[in-house]
Amino acid sequence: MAEISSEIKYRMPAEWETHKSTIICWPHQKEDWPGKFAPIPWVYAEIVRKIIPGEKVNILIQSKAEKEKVKKILAKVHVDLSYIEFVVAETDRGWMRDTSPAFVKSEDNIYCALFKFNGWAKYDNWKKDKNIPKILSKSLKINLIDVLHNNQKVVLEGGSIDINGKGTLITTEECLLDEKIQTRNPGFTKSDYETIFKKYLGITNVLWLGKGIAGDDTHGHVDDLCRFVNKDTVVLCRDKNQSDDNYYNLEENFEHVEDFKLEDGSKLNVFELPMPSPLHFEDLRLPASYANFYICNQAVLVPTFNDKNDKLALGIISELLPNKEVIGIHAVDLVWGLGTLHCLTHEEPA
Questions:
Q1: 281 CB contacts (<8 Å, ≥6 apart)?
Q2: Cα 60 to the chain's mean position, in Å?
Q3: How high is the mean pLDDT of the chain?
Q4: Which pLDDT does position 107 carry in this prediction?
Q5: pLDDT (mean) for 65-86
Q6: Which CATH architecture is the domain 19-349 placed in?
Q7: 258 in helix, strand or coil?
Q8: Which residues, 6+ apart, have CB-to-CB distance to 64 below 8 Å?
Q9: Neighbours of 112 (CB within 10 A)
Q10: Cα–Cα distance between 32 and 292 in angstroms, integer?
Q11: What distance separates the 2 farthest-apart alpha carbons in the chain?
Q12: Spans of all domains in the chain
């Protein structure tokens, strides 16, 4: 475990900066997709196929025995296996955005910032997932930095923040400041988080939105709501249907961003991103959102939902990321696990 140094300036790279690899965990927890698990490995295989050949993919698997099964699935969809590295590690779930460490850079090195994971302050099956940062640190040969504040470990999931790589971070009050429903760090204030983000991630400017989207079991992750697409531009979800549960919360967020400034004092550019029509499975509202896209080296993978707004969302993201191939990934089955593309991936910066 490396020691944090006040003399080293750390910076968290933006997602669109060059990756060395993408990290995923092969799906194995059938309870995440009850009654709908059968297509999920094939959705993952398609995701891997679209990420390469732009970069390698590190795939966490539960055992050596699972490796051959996964290789057969990937081979059937014509994935070039020379781009794949397998990491044997037992996990509870597979949401790598939230269980992986935050990768930060100094002038001459890369580190893994080790935040604590506690199952989104909601679920019980997380004791194996809390070890993922140490497993990845060893596999990728990157030193860990333990994130502490007031002598306690800091709980944070990767999906709760989004950054522009220049010093600005965007998050939600609902996720990080809630003291009643899913409390990550009891008693923490905005000032506490801003101190942590500056010390460990190089963040000098934190922008606070209000609430996240309906159906989000993380209680307000920003990666279903608002995402940077370049250093001074975000897309922010908006729903025009006044009878939808999302309408008023999303409108309040648009009021918030009117006054947002970037780290250099300039105005933040904001583009509307539509929401798909409400998606339910049985009695459960699902967190279907086009904002849960993943930017890799050669492409942007965007969840689609057999919805009239699929084409519009793909077009907006294409215009804002013109140097990437924008690819829709069918996510109606995937979102039954209460997450999609950004939730299940994590970039390893070059």
A1: 36, 336
A2: 17
A3: 96
A4: 86
A5: 97
A6: 5-stranded Propeller (3.75)
A7: coil
A8: 88
A9: 23
A10: 18
A11: 54
A12: 19-349
